[in-house]
Amino acid sequence: MKRAVIKDLTKMNYTDASLALDIENIKQIPIVPTMLEVICRSTGMGFAAIARVTQDRWIACDVRDEIGFGLVSGGELKIETTICNEIRDMREAVVIDHVDKSEVYHNHHTPKLYGLQSYISFPIIKKNGDFFGTLCAIDPNPAELNNPKIMGMFSLFAELISFHLQSADLLERSNVAVKELKRQLTDSLDENRQYRYISHHNLQEPLRKIRMFSNMLVNATDTNDNHRTKDFALKINSNAQRFSMMIKDLSDFSDLDHQKQSFEKVDLNKVITDVRVQLSDNMEEKNATFDSDTLPSIQGIPSQIEQLFYHLIHNAIKFSKKDKPLHLRVTTKRIPAKKTDHALTEQADLTYAEIRLEDNGIGIEKSQLEKIFDIFSQLPHAQIPEGKGVGLAYCRKIVRIHGGAITAESESDTGTIFSIVLPVITE
Q1: What span, in angstroms and rounded, lies between the C-alpha atoms of 348 and 336?
Q2: 325-363 as b/e: b if 16+ CB within 10 A
Q3: Does pLDDT of 13 surpass 50?
Q4: pLDDT tens digits for 253-263?
Q5: What is the pLDDT of residue 220?
Q6: What is the distance between the terminal CA atoms of the chain, rounded to a whole angstrom?
Q7: Is the Cβ–Cβ distance between 198 and 250 less than 8 Å?
Q8: Which of 53, 178, 225, 276 has the fewest CB atoms in 10 Å of its CB?
Q9: Residue 185 maps to a domain
Q10: What is the Cα 140 distance to its own chain's centre?
Q11: Are 105 and 28 contained in the same domain?
C-alpha cells in the first residue's frame, strides 16, 4: 500500500481557531477510539478515521491505523486527493467493496494515489445542517461493505458523532454565556460600588458647601454686608454649577450602556488620525511627537471608540512633563483569547488585539493605579489643574461595552502605558 503524503498539524498553527476547537471536540468524545476499533473489526479494514473536512482542508481528528497508512491524529491530507472532497458537496455516503470492479471508481485518482481497494465514508452532518466531515475507513484489500449491517453501523455512528458535536456546541455556548454574564455582573458590581461612593462623598461635598455658604449668606444679609453677600452668592452658584455638572457626567456615563448605535467596522488608524487632528493645538504646545504601528479594525461604535482614544491621548498631554517634550507611542499585537491576561469572554473564534499607548509623562503612583478608572477620581499631582475625573472612567466603560479590558502600568516620573485589549476583525 502506498504511504500517504501527510502534513503534521502538530507543527503548524491553525489559521482558524474554530477548526482547532472542532478537532478537540472529537477528541473529547470518550467512545471514539472504541468506535474506530469496532469499524475495523466489523469490516476487516485496517484504517478508520474521523475527518474534519472544509472547503480546502482535510484533517484527521482521530484515527486507528493497523496497516501503516501513516496518518495520525492531527495529520492532514490534501483535500483534492480525497473522495471526502466530493462527499462534502454531495452529502451522500460513498461505499466501494472492490475498486477494480467498480464502474464509477476504478479509474478514480484517490484509490490509485493511495493504493486502495476498499473504501467507505459517511458524511457527518451537524444538527444545524452544517457539514462537519466524514467517518471513513480504507484498506488495500477488497471488503464486503455494501450491506445493511455495515451501512447501518456507519449511519448510526455518524449520527452519534453529530449528537456529541451538538452537545459540545451547546456546552461551549453555555460556557460563553456564563462567562459573559459573570463579566457583566462584575462590571455592574464595580459601577454600583462607585455610585455608592459618589453618592456618599463626591456629591455630598458641593451640597455641604452650598448649605454652608447659604447660612453665611443669610447672616451677611442680616448684617447688610453687601460685599460678603455677593461673595457667598457667587460661591453658592459655583458649587451649584459643579453639582449640576457632576450629575450630567453621571447621566452621560450611565447612558453609554444605552446608546443604540449599531456596531460597525471601525478602522483604528483613522480614529487615531482624527483624534490627533482634534488635539493638534495641545500637542503643538507640548512639542509632542507621535509614533504608531498600523492598527487593526474592530467592530465597534465609532463615536465611543473615538472618545476612548481622545481621553487617553488628552490624558497623556495633561500629565506630560513641563520641561520635556511629550512623546507618544502606539503599538499593537494580536493575541488569541486563551492567551489574554484579562477577564474577557474566551470565545475560540475570536482574536484579540492588545493596543499599548505609551507616554513619557510624569507617571502615576502605583498606589493610585487601581483608582484611576473610578468616576471622579483625582490624582494627587499638585502641579496639575483639577479635572472632572471622568475621562478614564469613560475609557474603561467603553472598552467593557466592546468586550475588552483596559489596564495601566506606571510609576511616578516614568511615564504611563495604557493597555487596551479588544476583539478585532480577522481579514
Answers
A1: 8
A2: ebbbbbebeebebeebebebbebbebebbbbbbbbbbbb
A3: no
A4: 776 766 556 78
A5: 78
A6: 41
A7: yes
A8: 178
A9: no
A10: 46
A11: yes
Do 365 and 291 belong to one domain? Answer: yes
**Same structural domain, 148 and 243:** no
Q: 354-364: per-residue pLDDT in tens?
A: 999 999 999 88
Question: Are residues 309 and 297 part of one domain?
Answer: yes
Residue 8's pLDDT is what?
A: 45
pLDDT above 50 (res 164): yes
Q: Tell me: do 223 and 328 sit in the same domain.
A: no
Residue 78 CB contacts under 8 Å (≥ 6 apart), including other chains: 5, 58
The per-residue pLDDT for 1 is 59
Res 139 pLDDT > 90 = yes
Position 2 in a domain: no
Number of domains in the chain: 3
Of 424, 411, 418, 379, the closest CA to residue 396 belongs to 418
CA angle, residues 203, 206, 211, in degrees to nearest 5 = 120
Which of 240, 247, 249, 292 shows the shortest CA–CA distance to 270? 292
- Using an 8 Å Cβ cutoff, are 137 and 45 in contact? yes
**Domain check: are 269 and 235 in the same one?**
no
Any idea how long the chain is? 427
What is the span of the domain harbouring residue 301? 259-427
Closest to 164 in 3D by CA, of 49, 22, 14, 60: 22
Residue 9 reports pLDDT greater than 50 = no
Together in a domain, 295 and 422: yes
- Does one domain contain both 293 and 240? no
Look at residues 372, 303, 295, 353 and name the one whose alpha carbon lies nearest to residue 329. 295
Of 159, 174, 189, which marks where a domain is finished?
Answer: 174
Sign of the four-CA dihedral 22, 26, 28, 29? positive
Averaged pLDDT for residues 17-44: 90
**Residue 192 counted as domain residue:** no
CATH of the domain at 378: 3.30.565.10
- For cell 458641593, the residue is 206
Using the predicted structure, report yes or no on whether residue 382 has a pLDDT greater than 60: no
| Contact indicator for 256, 401 with CB cutoff of 8 Å | yes
Domain boundary among 257, 272, 297: 257
Question: Is residue 1 included in any domain, yes or no?
Answer: no
CA distances from residue 235 to 29, 160, 231, 318 in whole angstroms, order as listed: 72, 77, 6, 27
- Amino acid identity, position 286: K
Name residue 355's beta-bridge partners.
332, 420
Q: Which cell numbers in the block locate residue 85?
A: 472532497
What are the Cα distances from residue 165, in Å, to 21, 45, 124? 11, 26, 10
